[in-house]
Design goal:
13 helices, mainly alpha, two-stranded antiparallel ribbon, 2 strands, 1% strand
Length: 317
């Protein structure tokens, strides 16, 4: 009888092991197929955009990147002003959001405030990411643009010899767009930087205190270098968001297709150009918009490759 029971248990164990192996095998292949599907969708989108932009590529070639004219009547198209607006507005956003976001991350990850204050403060910072972009755009029109008027006038009166402030403050323009983008990407920078700082092993923190370092020396000499790869990853993710943001920027940037280096003048971005003209475009204009989208795709891809390269370099140290 014992031999029969033992054989039954062995049979059950073998069947269970076989079932578990089947589940593990299925899970492995399911996750692999889904991961490859994501890459496939990305390549499919890039391929479709490139295919539809072929007429514009054949017509304008690489001059499309250096031409400042966008004239549907004469069928002259160049993406230089929009590429300049995309890069500069995103740079302004990073310039404002990175210091503030990193400061928020330090305050929220260290014991500067009681937990009863840190918890709602963390919720409020993350809540910024849940606000629809059109709300940011409307806020920018009715609140931010009038608020920035004396600041823009001061920059022009005192630094007009610098091309970035060569024109009068016109209201909608690059500066309000950069500020709106900074507020929109702030939760990304703050949340990822805070998680990166919180993930630093406590032994490093207490080791620095043990050798006599002050709190600020510990933060800037130990914690931030240890969490640097995560912080850079968060900044690059925020930059990707800024490069592709559409509705909020469209409402406050002025949508001017003329090339103007001043951040106080109306400008345009590639995403805003697509949002404004794609619905009514046809023929060569539609193909040129696809070409502009392909340029934006390449800019975003370069940013992500650069972020990966920086993170890999930092990991070596």
């Amino acid at each position: 009888m014992n031999a029969t029971t033992s054989n039954s248990q062995m049979t059950t164990q073998e069947a269970r092991s076989g079932t578990e192996k089947t589940i593990d095998h299925s899970f492995f292949w399911t996750t692999r197929i889904l991961a490859l599907a994501v890459a496939g969708v990305l390549l499919w989108i890039a391929g479709q955009v490139a295919w539809n932009s072929i007429p514009a590529i054949q017509q304008f070639g690489l001059e499309f990147l250096a031409t400042a004219a966008w004239n549907p009547v004469e069928e002259l198209y160049g993406v230089l002003p929009m590429a300049y607006g995309t890069v500069v507005s995103s740079f302004i956003a990073l310039l404002l959001a990175v210091p503030v976001g990193l400061a928020c991350a330090i305050v929220l990850s260290e014991n500067f405030l009681p937990l009863s204050i840190r918890t709602p403060l963390t919720f409020l910072v993350e809540l910024l990411a849940a606000i629809p972009s059109v709300v940011y755009g409307l806020w920018g029109i009715y609140v931010l643009i009038p608020f920035l008027q004396p600041i823009g006038r001061w920059f022009h009166d005192n630094f007009s010899y610098i091309p970035l402030f060569a024109t009068q403050y016109a209201g909608p323009g690059m500066l309000p767009a950069g500020v709106v983008l900074a507020i929109m990407i702030l939760p990304i920078v703050a949340a990822i930087s805070r998680d990166s700082l919180a993930a630093v092993p406590s032994e490093l923190r207490w080791g620095a205190y043990g050798i006599g370092s002050t709190r600020w020396q510990t933060i800037f000499s130990v914690l931030i270098p240890a969490a640097f790869s995560g912080i850079v990853g968060g900044i690059m993710l925020a930059l990707g968001r800024a490069l592709g943001e559409t509705i909020a920027v469209t409402l406050v940037i002025g949508n001017s297709n003329n090339l103007n280096f001043s951040i106080l003048a109306p400008a345009n971005t590639i995403a805003s150009l697509l949002a404004n003209q794609f619905a009514e475009a046809s023929g060569l204009q539609k193909s040129s918009l696809f070409y502009a989208g392909l340029v934006l795709f390449v800019i975003t891809l370069i940013v992500n490759i650069l972020a990966y390269w920086i993170i890999q370099k930092v990991k070596k140290y």
